[in-house]
């Protein structure tokens, strides 16, 4: 009993330690290559998306240096919810951190200077990306295709775990359940 309690305390301290150390991002992101359509492969539960839905994100780099963002939520009943926003690069982040704003109630929240969209990992060919927030409440595994081989998916989720994300709560996308139109 005593050993179990000590193990629980130590594992709790390790988790707190992971969550208080700074979140690392990739060194830089080529926003032109990052642009285009991404499929959500997995995500932490959040208030913006229903648990039974799946989403895509499309990023378009504008001449002004900002990024036009279009997120589309696909629900199993065939309904879609589309929201468009605007992203700006956090100075000196070399594209690895963005401040992304969407209209509505989210626009009333205070803006974080360090950004609310952190690229934690990205495949060299820009086929897979791991994106989260510095408080580790939000995390998305994105890919250019609706699914990833299990080994690649697990590799990116291991990176997220090492960074202090609670990947055991991840919702895995099942694009076969989404009606195509």
Automatic annotation (TrEMBL):
CDD domains in the cross-refs: lipocalin_Blc-like
Gene Ontology biological-process entries: response to stress
Domain Lipocalin/cytosolic fatty-acid binding: 29-172
PROSITE patterns membership: LIPOCALIN (PS00213), PROKAR_LIPOPROTEIN (PS51257)
InterPro entries the record matches: Calycin, Lipocalin_ApoD, Lipocalin_bac, Lipocalin_Blc-like_dom, Lipocalin_CS, Lipocln_cytosolic_FA-bd_dom
Protein family: Belongs to the calycin superfamily. Lipocalin family.
Protein's name according to its UniProt entry: Lipocalin
Organism: Brevifollis gellanilyticus
């Amino acid at each position: 009993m005593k050993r179990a309690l000590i193990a629980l305390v130590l594992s709790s301290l390790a988790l707190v330690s992971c969550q208080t150390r700074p979140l690392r991002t990739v060194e830089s992101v080529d926003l032109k290559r990052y642009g285009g359509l991404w499929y959500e492969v997995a995500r932490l539960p959040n208030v913006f998306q229903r648990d039974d839905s799946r989403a895509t994100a499309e990023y378009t780099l504008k001449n002004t240096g900002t990024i036009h963002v279009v997120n589309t939520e696909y629900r199993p009943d065939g309904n879609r919810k589309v929201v468009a926003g605007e992203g700006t690069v956090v100075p000196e982040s070399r594209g690895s951190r963005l401040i992304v704003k969407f209209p509505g109630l989210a626009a009333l929240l205070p803006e974080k200077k360090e950004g609310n969209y952190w690229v934690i990992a990205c495949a060299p060919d820009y086929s897979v990306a791991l994106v989260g927030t510095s408080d580790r409440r939000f995390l998305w595994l994105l890919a250019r295709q609706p699914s990833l081989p299990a080994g690649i998916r697990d590799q990116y989720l291991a990176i997220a775990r090492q960074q202090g994300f609670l990947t055991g709560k991840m919702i895995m996308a099942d694009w076969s359940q989404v009606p195509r139109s």
